[in-house]
Queue: 2 jobs
Job 1
Amino acid sequence: MTALPFNPKAQRADLFRLYAERVRGAIRKQRISEEDALDLTQEVFRRVSRFEGTFPSRKDFENWLFGVSTNVVRNFRRDQKAARRQGEEVPLDTLPEEVLGAFARQAGQARAANPEEQAISGERRRLVAGALRELSPQQRQCTLMFYFQQLRYQEIAQVLQLSVETVKGHLKLARKRLLEILGPRAADLGFQASGAEESSS
Amino acid sequence: MSHPQDPLSETLRSLGEAVEAELVDHPSPEQLLAYHRRELSETDAEALREHLACCRECARVVLAAPEFFTPPDEEPPALAPELAAVWEKLAAEIAAEESAPPPDPLPFKARREARPGRARAPRFSARNTLAVAASALLAAGLAFAWGLARDRDARELARPRFGVPVASVQGAGASRSGESPAGAPPGAADFTFAPGQDVVLLALTPEEVPEQAAFRARILDPRGKVVFEAADLHPQPPASTFNVELRRAFFSPGAWCIELFARVGSEESVIDSYTVLVPEP
């Protein structure tokens, strides 16, 4: 098994024994159900078994295996949702423009599509989208990961590569700043000034 | 841990969902892995964070990485029963595949028609000599243009394009491929890059080409990742051939795959797939 270079096809049984649990764990971590995770683990190792080639080191193989696992999950999600472009090398400097542009469009769309029965929620979204864009990147990122993704402090710290204390500080300041930016309209729209996230641990 | 449910929190949640739904570009697993390992520049890392904040899918990949790459302290215990069952099923499937007769390694109609010991018949008859000559000139011109452009923008050039109206290749540093790799078992690869070959032009001729179908093709790298897709393809007459040009610079060593799809109505199916073996330099 430890012979180098790795030939996944020839060593597939050993590789499955050594990596199946890690692959399944990585898939489950992406919030895939237990049943689907087993199917996707099987698909990952199906690809391992069919791969024609070798790897110069264990690390190279693990990188490849992680990529295969990620793509298998993405394909699974893509099949569940509308097809969309993903998994390609993209210029990273275009990503913030895409995110901030989406916020801008949300602000505009919420104003345009403002049916009477949704007037308040449309107004809320429009105002909050605009206010979010005025936060510092770290405050905005922490805010979205906490309120939208519902991640825990530890998870936010891990993803953003910050300390837990820094995450808490950004969240506290972000909420305060958001309410400042929203000004007197905040109370009209039902936004409270209390630091609700502080009750989370 | 509970997250707040007040109006501001709810608004942030629905706003995040709306923004996430608009995201089209997602970083590759390699980019996410480089981020996890702090191998990106600070500028790139910051750009990626902005995406991660709004993309639950990519954030979860980053969250999954540490556990995946932390080696167990000791040899892993016996497989869990459900994983053992998965392996049993997969091993049976693989064994059945390997005991099946090898697939026809000849993807071209012309190659299928070739017989051992017989020289291959010329692909083109006299009646379309003019077309061949025109194609050869066009191929030479394209190859020259590729050479110039390669110096300008290697990355863009590295992307293969479909639908180039070249039915054959003559000279200009490019040659027709289609031979199984030397020493490879039958069916191991449909094509291979010859040493020193910069460009391979493939004429893919599926066995069956449904009429009035919409065609698309895609290229998968050795890891199974789709790196190129082309839709709205049209087979070239007279042999319903899809012409594909592949540039060596784009292809890392390994077994690549080209898949052709045909859609008739709402149903789409693979009509043929080809393996392209790229040897180590």
Note: Residues 195-201 of chain A have pLDDT under 50 and may be disordered.
Job 2
Amino acid sequence: MSLDQDFKDRIASIKARFTEVLDERTQEFEQLRHRIEYGQDAENALYDLRAGVHKLRGAAPTLGFARIGELAGESEDCINSLFDPKKTSDAASQFFGNLESLLTEMRSAASSSPG
Amino acid sequence: MKILAVDDDAFILELLFEALGATGYPNVTLAAGSVEALQTMHDSKTPFECFLLDIQMPDIDGIELCAHIRNEPAYRKTPIIMLTAMSERNYIDRAFAAGATDYVTKPFDVLELATRVKMAERLNAEMSKTQESVRTIDTLTERLVAERTIDLESPVDVENVDGFLNFRSFENYIAMLGRGSYFSSSLLALKIDNIRTIHKNCNATDFEFAITDFAEAISDNFAGNSRFFTYAGNGVYVCVYNRVKEPISENICLSIQDSVAQMSLVYADGNPLEIRLVSGAIKTPGVFSKHGSLSVLEDAIKSLENTYLAERVINASPKFELPAKKPKIWPKNARFGKYSL
């Protein structure tokens, strides 16, 4: 089974829109990080961030952004470990480090957007 | 094929729509969440023939939605393919327990997705044939109904028994296990040794009842979070479990045998229906076996023959006495379901 050019064009169009939305998502994640860092309803912010990175984990690699998917997956795992009562002392710093890597990758992909 | 795809990510929904359309499935309805999906199902004039459900969604997650769909009489057997970004076995196991028939891991490849949907379509075609047969039979006389037959070697679908998967779903489950889960899984095959006698002495309905009763006995002794089993045909049941997280008791065969004995099963004429059980060796994927291969399933079924030769026959009833003759040696062309020994 081969996929025709029309299909490839439509996927490219979805990919382009996804890239545009990445910038918006980056800003959302940054705001959530701020709330977590400064304890402003941090638990809900963590839940929201987890839902956000989970979506990225599935959608980004399917659209060809493998590295973003990988880092989003690691971020989701890090957040889950923060909810674990047996979490290690460096779990928080791991989480912030990982999130920064994800945001950097997202900014980089968003800046490559033609829009 | 009429498909309902449910995901809370708009991009995934768009991708599914395009990917399915490009691979020959243009009749796709999209829902951005479980509540919308249930409303769409309710409003639909014709039933959906396949579901694609994301697992992790807010409010009602995909596993709960799967269970809701299965509760609808019209969708008791409709293929449900789960979409998940997670490879954790826990989610997959819960989805199968809720009635899923298959799953696709995100990121998904378009052609792989098409393959899974094509399998669902085949399953639908088989079901339609069966339903057509049932409808035809319903219009015939009682005599014709009584003459309905079930092929001894064919898998039988058992309903409403915890942990039971139909044979195709069971194969999907084994084939799609993540690498870690695959190598920590073990399989055990059990056979009703006197299945030919039971099959010969029962009509189709009673035979199905016997297969279901035995499945219930297995379920009572075997069901767990990561445990599933199937009926492969020819009296063979195959169980899969995670030997690391949920090892099984050494005496599980005896326990199942006891449960069956306590059921005091009888034939239609009132004579006792005795069941003798043979268990194979526990099989685990070898270090060189290919991840996702079904060879371990075949190995588990084949090991029954060796076990039988080792005289591991267990009595179904305390009153039952083992025959004094030597154990029967299966002919080389004997078949257990679709697998030749």
Note: The interface with chain A takes residues 8-9, 11-12, 14-15, 18, 21-23, 54, 56, 58, 83-85, 106-108, 110-111, 114 of chain B (CB under 8 Å).
